[in-house]
Amino acid sequence: MLAVPHAYLTVRDITARPLVLRLKRPIVARIATITEWPLILIDLLTEEGIVGRSYLEPYVVKSMRYLVPALNDLGAMLKGRRLAPIELFLMRQGNHFTLSVTKAYR
Fold first, then answer.
1. Helix, strand, coil distribution of the chain in percent, nearest 5
2. 17, 81 in Cβ contact below 8 A?
């Protein structure tokens, strides 16, 4: 079996943008009627030209006031760092143990 070297990506920027969708048909549940659906759109740009896109659905519009700045701060913290794609994936999963193991085998 051939060993394939890990490709590393250099984080250029992470941008988070809040978006509130107005639902044409409200979601009616026992506890509430939901007429708006909050989304946070996330873009990850790398120096190598790779672009990653994702989103969060926080359910509560007010929570975006805290989540968006936190995600943008994360982008500022990671700016210029070289990471293997698996590290970015594990960070997204919140699995700090696996992330530390991945760093140990660099």
1. 35, 40, 25
2. no
- The domains of the chain are located at 9-80
Distance in angstroms (rounded) separating the CA atoms of residues 59 and 61: 7
pTM: 0.70
Q: Which CATH superfamily is domain 9-80 in?
A: Enolase-like, N-terminal domain (3.30.390.10)
Please answer whether residues 76 and 58 qualify as being in contact, where contact means their C-beta atoms are separated by less than 8 angstroms: no
pLDDT category at 106 given cuts 50, 70, 90 is very low
CB atoms near residue 41 (< 10 Å) = 14
Q: Could you give the C-alpha distances from 106 to 82, 84, 87, 96, in angstroms and in order?
A: 12, 9, 11, 16
Mean pLDDT of the region 42-56: 89
